[in-house]
């Protein structure tokens, strides 16, 4: 059996990656770690054939783990796939300089992840599959089995007190938890990235558990339970990238020809730094700045 280590601070993402790997590649045994420090400890005791790692994590980042890994003789040639919401050119170049094997942006599809694994594992994966006599599952099978992971209820988070809504703004739907509602005259923009599209939207409600955005109907919309990354500007040249999944889709108006759709994204990040960034944005959002 080949051994893969999955490293991400969000248990949701770790479970999704492990489930996809097990479905598509039954010859790969998966172990997981919640941050780079824990991964480093596991890698010192066990030899892994593949590392699939997030970038932004507490205690030790994915880049720091990669740097340490390439300094170890036994891991200098082992494939390392960076799976992260940081998809800008500068970060890709930085990871390549440190010896990353492949770079996969969040949100990712099971098919996209599978292709990266096949590319970096090459002959060793093919030989292992041939010896086992097993075939690869289809991407659709992997996704359907993974979908149950997305319905897991997030851990309870601190709630933001309710605020009076703007009279002309679309009414809020009940999706659980008290919210900070958009104050009169304020408008916070957000880009919500999916595996195949990006949704331009306005933040309507937000707390530490989820965000509800309003988007024009003429865009490409995701499906329920699709992975998502919400990009929110938290300061000058500062962007929070929050991982989540689509919890709810509904029309803003009770008319079939409504121009706007409401999308609720449940957050899955467990990184304290990301929650701190989100808290700062919520405070600014409530103040109407």
UniProtKB/TrEMBL annotation:
Residues in Response regulatory domain copies: 3-121
InterPro entries attached to this UniProt entry: CheY-like_superfamily (IPR011006), Sig_transdc_resp-reg_receiver (IPR001789), ST_Response_Regulator (IPR052048)
Q: Where is the composition biased (Basic and acidic residues)?
A: 155-166
Question: Which controlled-vocabulary keywords does the entry list?
Answer: Phosphoprotein
Chain intervals for the UniProt region annotation (Disordered): 155-184
Q: What does the organism's lineage look like at the top?
A: Bacteria, Pseudomonadati, Pseudomonadota, Gammaproteobacteria, Pseudomonadales
Q: Name one Pfam family in it.
A: Response_reg
* Protein name in the entry: Response regulator receiver domain-containing protein
Identify residues that carry 4-aspartylphosphate: 54
GO BP: any one term: phosphorelay signal transduction system
Q: Which SUPFAM superfamilies match?
A: CheY-like
């Amino acid at each position: 059996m080949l051994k893969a280590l999955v490293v991400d601070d969000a248990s949701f993402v770790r479970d999704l990656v492990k489930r996809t790997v097990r479905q598509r590649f039954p010859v790969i045994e998966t172990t997981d770690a919640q941050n780079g420090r824990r991964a480093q400890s596991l890698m010192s005791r066990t030899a892994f054939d593949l590392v699939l790692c997030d970038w932004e994590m507490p205690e030790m980042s994915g880049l720091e783990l990669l740097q340490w890994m390439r300094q170890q003789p036994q891991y200098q040639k082992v494939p390392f796939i960076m799976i992260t919401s940081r998809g800008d050119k500068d970060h890709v170049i930085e990871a390549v300089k440190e010896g990353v094997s492949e770079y996969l942006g969040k949100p990712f599809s099971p098919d996209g992840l599978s292709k990266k694994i096949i590319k970096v594992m090459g002959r060793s994966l093919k030989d292992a599959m041939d010896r086992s006599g097993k075939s690869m599952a289809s991407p659709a099978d992997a996704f359907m089995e993974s979908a149950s992971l997305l319905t897991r209820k997030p851990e309870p988070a601190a709630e933001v007190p309710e605020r009076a809504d703007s009279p002309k703004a679309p009414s809020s739907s009940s999706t659980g938890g008290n919210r900070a509602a958009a104050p009169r005259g304020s408008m916070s923009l957000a880009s919500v990235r999916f595996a195949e599209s990006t949704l331009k939207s306005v933040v309507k409600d937000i707390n530490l558990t989820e965000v509800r955005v309003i988007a024009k109907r003429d865009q490409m919309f995701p499906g329920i339970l699709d992975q998502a990354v919400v990009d929110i500007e938290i300061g000058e040249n500062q962007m929070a990238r929050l991982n989540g999944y689509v919890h709810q889709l509904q029309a803003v108006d009770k008319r079939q020809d409504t121009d706007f759709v409401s999308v609720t994204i449940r957050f899955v990040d467990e990184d304290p730094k990301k929650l701190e960034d989100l808290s700062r944005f919520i405070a600014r959002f409530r103040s109407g700045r």
